[in-house]
Amino acid sequence: MVANILVGMLCAHLLCFSVMFLLISKRLHDQKMGMDFFAMGNLLLGCAYVLQLAEGGPAWSLMSVVNHTFTLASPVAYWLGAMRFFGHSVPLWRPLLAVAVTYSAAQVLVQWSLGPVARYAMLSGMSALLFLVMVITVIYGVRTFAKDFYGEMLFFAALITGICVLNALKFMKLLDGGLDALQMDRNFQLVFYIYMSSLATVLPPSIIWLVLRRLTDDLRNLAARDPLTQLLNRRGLTEALQRYFNSRKAVPAHLLMVDIDHFKRINDTYGHPIGDAVLCHVAEVLRTTVRGGDLAGRFGGEEFVVICLDTDVLGVMHLAERLRAAIEKQAIQVTGSDHPLHCTITVGVSRHFANAHVLEDAMREADAALYRGKAAGRNRIELAPS
Ligand SMILES: Nc1nc2c(ncn2[C@@H]2O[C@H](COP(=O)(O)OP(=O)(O)OP(=O)(O)O)[C@@H](O)[C@H]2O)c(=O)[nH]1
């Protein structure tokens, strides 16, 4: 009785969250993050439990075959959904259909050749195996593609290990005690469904949390970066600088104003799209030349800003020279032209400054130095007088 009530609640949870996942996936348009796949996983499992309730107990019927197939197909849908969340473009229908056809055929074969116990044991055994694969994927993800979600992934691995162990135990109980092990009033069944109900309560909100985290991270990134070059914009740079100066280890910083020489000429000669490609090229050189902790940004136009943290004036002049030489040396391939394009930069360097509120002053100093560099012939570095 209690186990049946639990299964009923489980159905309600799964089907409600299936609808919620589907609604969220509709709101996400092109970037669904696997929510439509999770909706399908919940729907399959919810329907499987509805069929189980309708059956009443172990039986050999079409309903039971469909129930087992849905039960096994649901973790496959979740697994594919997780792949989607982490940016792998995997299909849904083909793998699900393949699982459904293969597993239905396997059920008929096992029922005829080995009997009903073997068919039920096959479901528990296959589920345990599938969940084991999921746990291994999640642990692999923690070390590779899902590093950003370390805590969440470990939490999921622990929860899935629980279902994996329970299915493995059910498999052994079935081999040991036959179909009696599936009696709903057995203690093991009770524990099994209490665990499944807890999962149905905890997992869906956790999945929604993952999506929310990804969305807010994307939004924050969008607000902090220049869309053309992906360098920090003024807001991103100011926030990063404030975080740096708030840390106890912070030492004074220097600001470099980097300006492409005669950029208007490049735009006028080759067109705006090539001008944009040159901006992206310069951004890439900045990104790869500055040190790990330094900040590189573009506030619009052909001017870039680099903030050197944790370096004295000699180190800053060294970096500025490295940037200037790298830009001068590297050729930019222009589509539709046999001749690679070369450009140069002029760099103005501010005096050191020690808090984010004086960023504007540092910019003015670096800008004045830059102006002097331009007037003195370009392709050079000019330091603000101390
Ligand atoms: N392609 C492209 N051009 C831009 C962008 N933003 C600003 N520009 C162009 O950058 C050019 C800047 O030219 P100027 O400020 O006259 O300076 P310059 O030609 O680089 O000359 P100097 O700085 O004196 O060496 C203008 O032609 C702008 O239209 C952009 O996002 N993309």
Strand order of the largest sheet: 2-3-1-4-5
* General shape: elongated
The helix count comes to 12
Bound small molecules, by name, code or SMILES, are:
guanosine-5'-triphosphate
CATH topology of the largest domain: Rhopdopsin 7-helix transmembrane proteins
Nearest-integer average pLDDT: 92
User: What's the architecture of the largest domain in CATH terms?
Assistant: Up-down Bundle
Content of β-strand? 5-15%
State the secondary-structure class.
alpha+beta
Question: How far apart, in Å, are the first and last alpha carbons?
Answer: 84 Å
Task: Describe the protein's architecture and organization.
By secondary structure, the chain is of the alpha+beta class. The protein is built from twelve helices and five strands. It has a five-stranded mixed β-sheet with strand order 2-3-1-4-5, sandwiched between helices. Helix 3 (62-85) runs parallel beside helix 5 (116-143) and helix 4 packs antiparallel against helix 5. The chain binds guanosine-5'-triphosphate. Residues 228, 259-265, 267, 272, 275-276, 279, 301-302, 374, 378 line the site of guanosine-5'-triphosphate (GTP). Residues 251-386 form the GGDEF domain. It is an enzyme of class 2 (transferase). GO terms for molecular function: diguanylate cyclase activity. One of its GO terms (biological process) is negative regulation of bacterial-type flagellum-dependent cell motility.
